[in-house]
UniProtKB/TrEMBL annotation:
Annotated stretches, region: Disordered: 180-199
Entry protein name: Uncharacterized protein
Organism for this UniProt entry: Sphaeroforma arctica JP610
Matches recorded under Gene3D superfamilies: Pleckstrin-homology domain (PH domain)/Phosphotyrosine-binding domain (PTB) (2.30.29.30)
Pfam families: CRIM, SIN1_PH
Family per record: Belongs to the SIN1 family.
Length: 356
């Protein structure tokens, strides 16, 4: 029943009370109850003639009709039609065209007086049920000493509310850090993750080494600073200054202006994508290493591979140099290294020339 039907008597609405003074102002109407709200199945299964007051509204008429159907067993019995438990709110009145409810026009307003409508034949249909939209839930991952958990959150909440909710969650399901004793497996996983982060950090962190480079056939060596960075190699020459200490020079102008016993060399840079190989040279010494750089000839455009050989000042530095360069080369993809591998395979597959 509607809101007015809960406070008014049925007799007052329908005008059937013999003592009602305004019985002469009754309004006669006829309407039907279709099976469904689709135009394909709109044949009425229940028709009623109802007499109501002119001051009655649309939802009053719906409530009276449901009451009459219930009293006369027109609905819910042999007809196979059940009244919705929501009552008046589940139905609406529409105009009838060609024996079926008209869906071209909106339904009659529930608070509108029936006397304002020119037609007296109406159809009561169910209000289409709106499907509730499924709200996509968002989750936040909370890491506690006991593991990781996902907590559903509302995107409309503020950051302070989110922090408060996470704090309450940790207090409710977590343990205090002092009382928690991690297992051996958990410690090993944390240790492995920490080592992996440290290795990645070391890979792209600049590191320098003191090296020597052979300058001529007489075995004369020049000391240099070999700098390994994530994207390039830098070879910085050093010269002897007035204080007899080795000092690195960062630009060619400083090297050219400096006075020393040796002729200064140029500052060299190599892109790490052009470096195709780095290895030890144990047949020469336990401190010697070399790296190969790919470069294109300016005239022909052909690729050539130049080998640069250095000797570390300390024995323990040579292994660190090779390890760091291999780590960088393995984490960076380079077309030059791919071409170099194909070049080595072609060299091995080529027939060797025999000298007679």
């Amino acid at each position: 029943m509607c809101h007015l039907a809960q406070t008014k008597r049925i007799r007052d609405v329908t005008g059937t009370d013999p003592n009602y003074p305004y019985r002469c102002n009754a309004l006669h109407t006829r309407f039907s109850l279709p099976r469904a709200a689709s135009t394909e199945n709109m044949k009425p299964v229940c028709e009623q003639d109802v007499c109501v007051l002119r001051s009655a509204q649309v939802h009053d008429l719906v409530g009276v009709f449901l009451w009459k159907c219930h009293e006369e067993n027109k609905v819910g019995g042999d007809s196979g039609v059940e009244i919705d438990q929501k009552g008046v709110d589940a139905y609406e009145l529409r105009d009838i065209e060609d024996g079926v409810p008209s869906l071209d026009w909106p339904p009659l307003p529930g608070t509108q007086d029936l006397s304002k409508f020119a037609f007296d034949t109406m159809a009561m249909v169910r209000v289409p049920r709106k499907e509730k939209k499924k709200i996509k839930k968002e989750y936040v991952v909370v890491t506690t000493p006991g593991g990781r958990s996902t907590v559903p959150i509302d995107l409309d909440c503020t950051v302070s509310e989110l922090l408060k909710m996470v704090s309450l969650f940790i207090l409710s399901v977590g343990k205090r850090m002092d009382d928690f004793e991690p297992s051996d497996t958990h410690q090993k996983e944390q240790s492995a993750e920490k080592n992996e982060r440290e290795e990645k950090f070391k890979t792209y962190t600049s590191e320098s080494f003191a090296v020597y480079k052979k300058m001529n056939i007489f075995g004369k060596k020049e000391e240099m600073v070999f700098v390994i960075e994530g994207d390039k190699l830098s070879i910085i020459p050093t010269i002897m200054d007035s204080t007899n200490s080795w000092t690195p020079r960062s630009t060619w102008n400083d090297l050219r202006m400096a006075h020393g016993r040796h002729t200064p060399q140029k500052l060299l840079y190599y892109n790490m994508d052009d470096v195709v190989r780095a290895c030890l040279v144990p047949e020469k010494s336990d401190r010697t290493f070399q790296f190969v750089v790919a470069s294109k000839k300016p005239v022909t455009g052909m690729t050539e591979y130049n080998t640069h050989e250095f000797e570390t000042k300390r024995v323990e530095d040579v292994a660190r140099v090779i390890r760091k360069m291999d780590r960088i080369l393995n984490t960076r993809k380079s077309e030059a290294r791919t071409n170099y591998d194909a070049y080595l395979e072609a060299q091995e597959a080529a027939p060797k020339r025999r000298w007679v």
